[in-house]
Amino acid sequence: MFSNEERDSIYKVIYNRRDIRSFLSTPIPENTIHKILNAAHHAPSVGFMQPWNFILISSDEVKEKLAWAAEKERQALAIHYDGEKEMKFLDLKIEGLKEAPITICVTCDPTRGGSHVLGRNSIPETDILSTACAIQNMWLASCAEGLAMGWVSFYKKNDIRDILEIPPHIDPIALISIGYTNDYPEKPILELANWEKRRSLEHLIFENKWGRN
Fold first, then answer.
1. Coil, strand or helix: which one is 73?
2. Strands 102-108 and 171-179, sheet pairing
3. Which of 51, 41, 56 has the alpha carbon at shortest distance from 164?
4. What is the chain's percent helix, strand, coil content, to nearest 5?
5. 195, CA 20 to 30 Å: which among 85, 93, 132, 167?
């Protein structure tokens, strides 16, 4: 299906994708954003329910409100860490929400497809898992387009619902900032900050039953 060069390119994007926090204000061509969203829309979804929606945010006023919601939660979460780790956590940037030319709120609609969705009846959270697949497609497509993407994952969902006027049954899964950057690290930011190290794959693989290597 793919040439050797095409296959290598896919793996290159997977291994080089990063969660970015610093962006340039350079505008992104509209057709590029559409290509990234179309890649997201072609993600696999359980029962083909396609539970996602995308709110495109370019207003500085709205970005400021989103950054406020993230900062409020970041300060609240800092109490869970002590000493050096607390300082590292507080140093994590959320300024990307304001710097990036566009932020996208990716939502999940649990009612999409009706009350009986193939596969979701057994495992209800597959709607959120499907939305996560769409986000991963966005990340890979952004990287392939030479763009950086950052996923802000701490905020109170009701704050985001209020700011973006999202209906109460819709789940705001992610705030995604996208833009060009001059700071694209060779390793994940949290790994560079010694927050955590990549685990050995060999220790994560079992044979036939849990715990059997």
1. helix
2. antiparallel
3. 56
4. 45, 15, 40
5. 132
Instruction: State how far the Cα of 55 lies from the Cα of 85, in Å rounded to an integer.
Output: 33
Tokens of 93: 């940037």
Phi, psi of 195 (to 5 degrees): -70, -40
Distances (CA, A) of 33 to 30, 100, 104: 5, 13, 10
DSSP secondary structure letter of residue 32 = H
pTM, full prediction: 0.90
- 81-98 pLDDT, tens digit per residue, is 676 665 554 456 667 899
Mean pLDDT for 44-51 is 93
Residue corresponding to tokens 């649990």: 110
What's the mean pLDDT in 109-114?
Answer: 87
d(CA 146, CA 36) in angstroms, rounded, equals 12
> Which of 35, 100, 108, 90 lies closest to 66, judged by CA?
100
